[in-house]
Amino acid sequence: MQSKGLWKIIGASSLGTLIEWYDFYIFGSLATVISLKFFPANNPSAAFLATLATFAAGFIVRPFGALFFGRLGDLIGRKYTFSITLLLMGSATFLMGCIPSYESIGFWAPVLVLVLRLLQGLALGGEYGGAATYVAEHAPANKRGYWTSWIQTTATIGLFISLLVIMLTRLALSQEDFNNWGWRVPFWISILLVAVSYFIRKKMGESPLFESLKAEGSVSKNPLKESFGNKDNFKFVLLALFGATMGQGVIWYTGQFYAMNFIEKICFVDKMQSDVLIAIALLMGTPFFIVFGALSDKIGRKKIMLLGMLLATLSYRPIYEKMYQTISVKNKIEVLAKQIKSTSLNKTLETKTIDSVQTINSFYTDGTEKTEIITIHLNTKGEKLINSKKESKISIKINNYDKWILIVLVFIQVLFVAMVYGPIAAFLVELFPTKIRYTSMSLPYHIGNGVFGGLLPAVAVYMSSKANDANTFAAAQGEILPYDKPYLEGLWYPIILSAICFIIGLVYINSKTKN
Amino acid sequence: MNKLKRLLGFIWILLALLSAYFSVVYFGLPKITNPKGSDDLVFGVIIIFILMPIIVGGLFKFGLYAIQGLYDDKNKN
User: Fold this and answer.
1) pTM of the predicted model as reported, rounded to 2 decimal places
2) Which residue of A237, A468, B36, B67 is most buried, as measured by CB atoms within 10 A?
3) Is B14 touching A (CB cutoff 8 A)?
4) Within 10 A of A492 (CB to CB), how many other CB atoms are there?
5) Other CB atoms within 10 Å distance of the CB of residue A107
6) ipTM entry
7) Which among A449, A508, A513, A515 is the top mutation candidate for probing chain B, defined by the most B β-carbons within 10 Å of its own β-carbon?
8) Quick one: pLDDT at residue B76?
9) Tens of pLDDT, residues A453-507
10) Kind and range of the H or E element at A275?
11) Helix, strand, coil proportions of chain A in percent (round to 5)?
12) Contacts of A503 in chain B (CB under 8 A)
């Protein structure tokens, strides 16, 4: 196929996949607002975890989407299947932006969010395998890594655009308007993007390899049975999962999502500042997906993917330690004369309590600013409520120099992502025969990314908070703290999984590994 | 290399069994039977019903296939 024709195919496939990723990530990027709107809880951390759990629900159904749509794609064709997934995703995203809040419809609100999130997961499970297969089946074999790497950029660009749209919406509206209704705008925008992409896809032809299978009458009768019921194929599904996509999934989510969670939830960097620096790092790192995809055509997929896993395994702890120490105000000198303290009383009508809110603004010699808001719940007489804990919210605005240090540290992580993710579509496509390719490659991809990777932010935040709790308990008892650096504890999850994946990939995958 | 592939098969099976033990005894069951909050319960359910079957079942089968020589390079010993 001519390059010009291929560019059209890449463009049309990538645009749809990019929109699906955008749809999927706006939910994660708006997790904090969504948790307040749909998951009522007095404790914001519990509400945040509830959202992450829903996030995980979206990821856990991805493998089921991979099975359902993968089978369909191997039976009726790639083009029709990944057009259906696009429509399903767009509709679910748009409707999510229309759900009334918990205050208006009560219990139905979180239930509807969950149902639509599950539909998003199903759609995404079917989309990626279709797009990767479709592009790979059009591309010449010696440039498959290069051409499919364009599809690989869509996940990162989708995340980048989701952050950008949210940032622009925040900037265009007041904080109050954004929290009231503005957060719905990024969801509504999706329907326009999906409509455009659907009509472009509709005009495209079917994959030439699938067309010839159809003409020969060799289309699989039962793709699920042939993919997973046949030992000779299933062994490659397992190898793809444990030797490639498991490590790739956790590296993807560490570099792009956990980095964001870490900067915001553990280091307390201001939300807007954190979004900007992550967006810059993603933008800088995205071209490297193409670089490593193209390089994999020359030196092989295995070498690049395994090097990415090894580097990530060895450097995560030093990178996150550096991030933490760069932000920590313990390493900075406060200008005490500039400190501003103010106290106010806020009435809460629903709980008939009064909150004493103390705001402390601290300034540091290097330009860092810290705002701490301490809330104490009082009864109507102004006495502290029994069992009521002091709540503290911290927000740190870092200086420009520290911001660039963080950008570089996140960028390094995005480079690891590009190394493992750039060549993986070509790797998976080449592992399986055409007639069951869509089904066979979709499942390990979505288990690796959806289950192992998708659960990473939730599991890692949970592990860090448990380590913190253990330290707090030990300190209260006057015992030695069990964790030296509790903020790094969450990293054990990606480190161990990528190390295992590296060993399996190194030993079991060779350049001739092909089904 | 084929010998190493087969030998490591035992490690993957062992790892699968260890994962099963830790997932159930240390992570999953305590969170389901005695949850300290909704987040604990959610993670307990995710660990026992999602992560564990995939890790344990998949890794066990992968180890088994490795021991059976299904991943052997046919041109080498």
Assistant:
1) 0.86
2) A237
3) no
4) 15
5) 9
6) 0.90
7) A508
8) 54
9) 877 877 787 788 888 888 988 988 888 888 989 989 999 999 999 999 999 999 9
10) helix A271-285
11) 75, 10, 15
12) 8
Structure tokens at B33: 């039977």
Q: The tokens 């010993």 sit on which residue?
A: B77
Contact A515, A433 (CB under 8 A): yes
> Tokens representing A191?
């329907």
Domain ranges of chain B: 2-68
One DSSP character per residue, A242-259 reads IIIIHHHHHHHHIIIIIH
Q: Which chain B residues have a beta carbon less than 8 Å from that of A60? A: 46, 50
Distance (Å, whole) CA A513 – CA B38:
45
Of B1, B5, B58, the CB nearest to A238: B58
* Residue A494, number of CB atoms within 10 A of its CB: 26
Residue A139's H or E segment, with its range, is none
Inter-residue contact A353 to A379 (CB < 8 Å):
yes
Which residue is it, tokens 């030296």?
A: A484
CA angle A491, A322, A161 (to 5 degrees): 70
Comparing CA positions, the residue from A23, A299, A295 lying closest to residue A154 is A23
Interface of A with B (CB under 8 A): 46, 49-50, 53, 56, 60, 231, 234-235, 238-239, 241-242, 447, 451, 455, 458-459, 462, 500, 503-504, 507-508, 510, 512
Query: CA A247 to CA B12: how far, in whole Å?
Result: 16
The CA distance from A125 to A123, in Å, is 5
CA-to-CA dists, residue A64 to A70, A426, A457, angstroms: 9, 22, 21
Map residue A234 onto helix, strand or coil. helix
Q: Which amino acid is at A431?
A: L
Give the Cα separation of B60 and A454 in Å (integer).
Answer: 22
**Neighbouring C-alpha atoms within 13 Å toward the C-beta of A1:** 22
What distance, in Å, lies between the first and last C-alpha atoms of chain B? 8
Residue A284: phi and psi, rounded to 5, are -70, -35
DSSP A404-468: HHHHHHHHHHHHHHHHHHTTHHHHHHHHS-GGGHHHHHHHHHHIIIIIIITTHHHHHHHHHHHHH
Cβ atoms of B42 and B28 within 8 Å: the answer is no
Contact (CB<8Å) A462/B38: no
pLDDT digits (tens, 9 = 90+) for A70-107: 999 999 888 888 888 888 988 988 999 999 988 788 77
Of A305, A306, A241, whose CA–CA distance to A447 is shortest? A241
Amino acid symbol at A400:
N
